[in-house]
Known about the structure:
Layout: H1 4-51, H2 57-78, H3 85-96, H4 101-106, H5 128-146, H6 163-178, H7 183-197, H8 201-204, H9 207-243, H10 247-263, H11 270-275, H12 280-285, H13 288-314, E1 318-319, E2 325-326, H14 360-365, H15 412-421
Antiparallel strand pairs: 1-2
Helix pairs in contact: 1-2, 1-3, 1-5, 6-7, 6-9, 6-13, 7-9, 9-10, 9-13
Amino acid sequence: MISPASTRRFWETRATALAWRINFAAWLALAAPASFFVASAFSIAFYALRRADASLATAWLALAAALALAALACAWRARRGFFNAAEARVLIESQLRLDTRLTAAAAGLVAWPAASGHPPAVVRWRLRAAAGWLAASVILLSGAIYAPVPRDAGGVHASGPPPALRQTESMLAALKEMNVADAQSVEQLAERARELARRPPEEQYSHSALEAADELKNQTAVSAASLARGLDSAAGALNAANNEPDMKGAAGRLAAALSGLRDGALPPNKDLLANLPAGEIDLKGLSAAQRAQLAQQLANAARGLRGVAGAAGAGAQVAGPDGKGVGAGGGPGGGGGTAPLSFAKDASDAGDGNAQALTGDALKRFALGDKLGTTRGAHDVDPANAVGPVSAGAVAAPASGGEAVWVDRLTPAERSAVKNFFK
Length: 423
């Protein structure tokens, strides 16, 4: 026989457990959606940290703190629907049709009802909605933790240095091969290019690295063009010395050109400067043939420098260290000799042909804007087909003036009325 104390403990335990189940269900109905939103925010932040190779310990602590705060907030909101033991006891009485026997027994008015080994369930779980929210949260967290992270996080898919840096390297290789510019100055530019090329691929294609590569390319091209202008000025002064009876003016122009060459961003090499006359006396000491030969050498060097600087801007071929053409993409150049470019009456039937790039040697022989050639001709007039001046048009009738613009045809009554009006 079961003692009254055991019976009471049985019903009180049932009431307490029922209250806990109802309260947990009320809390879970709010906590499951809240956990999904916390998991969403955490998954985005966690995956971003993985892409940035940042520390993840703080992220886990933030997740635990966020879940704890969400749980407390949901419990605070659901507290109004919580049951206590007495309310759960009343629910048991209602569902098991015990009237008020449990409440009366708890007050000591009647004996506790007999305890049943397996009483029917008072409430049932409905976890479909809550399980959906929780499953979605687990999926998001799993994706953030185990999803593969692309190594090219900056969106860089290109291999090798940027195009501007490759063009700069081609220009510097051409400058070294020409042996016109100062080797130390060219090496300084080359070291800056190598420094940019040593960066990791994702850094080479960053905004700052691309700007640095463009700036280095522009500086190299401008320096080469400035050196070319200085050599042209020196060549012009040497040619003027052969054409002018007084070499004083030519010597002054040559001295100004040499000063600009020495102070330029890319000065010429020392051997080239040593071979140039330093003043009027040295200029007079050279024969006319020597001055002409030296001027031609300077003009050829300037032409090659202008070709390098001009080709870099258009992505064309520039001279490489082996004398072959190297383009913006680093590929080998090709092509044969130059083709004649002149006007002719009949069109040339060259066929389809193959497109080939210019070689580095070709760039040394000409620069942008050079005149390739001209031809002279006269109008071919056939006297038999000549037509004299003709009239621009013919007039169908002789000109006349003073007539009325329009003529009205009036009836006799209208003419009489008009005549009376103008009497």
